[in-house]
Amino acid sequence: MQLPRGISCRGKLLLFDFSLGYGLILAGILEKLGICHRFALFRAACLFIPVMRDPKLIIKDLDFDGVPGRVYWPKTSPAGKRRGIIFFHGGCALFGSIRKFCELICRAIAHQTDSVVIFRLSPEYPFPTAVQDCCTAAIHFLKNAEEYGVDPSRIAFAGESSGGTYATAICQELVTREDLPRVRAQVLIYPFLQGLDFNLPSYQQNHSIPPLFRKRTVSLGLISLTGKTMNVDGVLKGAHVPPDLREKCQKWINADNIPEEFKARGYVPVEPAAFSEELYEQVKRGGETVFAPLLAEDDIIRQLPETFILTCEYDVLRDDGLLYKKRLEDNGVPVTWYHVQDGFHAIMAMAGLKAIEFPSTQKCLQNVIQFLKGL
């Protein structure tokens, strides 16, 4: 596999992807043999990531209206109520444990921003359970923020990868709720935001760049959406999108909305395959805004709070972030955008794990922290 020279530490990335790929193959074998669900292997492996005590934080596992979460409080005495941050981790609701990589991100954010951080582990169930559970936890926290020492007017939603999807979708779901405090901001770290077009420039340019290959993106997304393994060829070609939906969303999901500088590494427009009613029936819930927040109407988008978006040049999801940035700005929502020129998908999830951190990992985290400090 030949990686672009723009990526730093290419050998380390190849080793990381080899380990991930080997794990996926082994997990598939274990599932076929009836030993365990394929993703149980990854969840078990995460248990071996040590969780160290932190002298600067109070950390407790609590219940949020029936949904488990972990709360991080700085030990320093606050001058008043602190800001609150609800963080959703990635993994397509398939991988992970509360001891996963984002544990270290939450600790860093809590300490360096002097905030109360709630880490909601995305449940490992098919759509829409993951979003519903995360929404339940978010509502509980918004209603009871002061009990956690948090100012209800200073609460942000944050997430990386599919966790960014949840943060976006839940923010949209709650924006019209007058019985809840208004969310102060959303922080979206290389989020997945649409499943209609997998031939955008970033999907073409980065189709074979690890760890999130184009085909792997769709495969994992379909497992999360349907709960089963599916052939991805038709979805990759766009055969799952009804003509009326494609026409409606053309103004939002279109390579013409991507700045020309992001097409410099190559882009060829692709005509979608003929519509398949059978395929659509299997995946039609992927057109719901809780799965694809980029499809939300302007009436919802214009009510959203200040937003931070992080994109990576060598990530198939790059253009999802760019398209959402444009939609927010077109609707008058303030956006802070940080683009990682040598970045790839999941680069920030490695923060705090020195052996596998990349040169831009801490830069990503520090940009997020600086944005949160300003809230």
UniProtKB/TrEMBL annotation:
Keywords: Hydrolase, Membrane, Transmembrane, Transmembrane helix. It comes from Podarcis lilfordi. This is Arylacetamide deacetylase-like 4. InterPro entries: AB_hydrolase_3, AB_hydrolase_fold, Arylacetamide_deacetylase, GDXG_lipolytic_enzyme. The active site is at 161, 315, 345. The keyword Repeat does not apply. GO terms for cellular component: membrane. GO terms for molecular function: carboxylic ester hydrolase activity. Residues 85-206, 278-348 form the Alpha/beta hydrolase fold-3 domain. The chain crosses the membrane at residues 12-30. Belongs to the 'GDXG' lipolytic enzyme family.
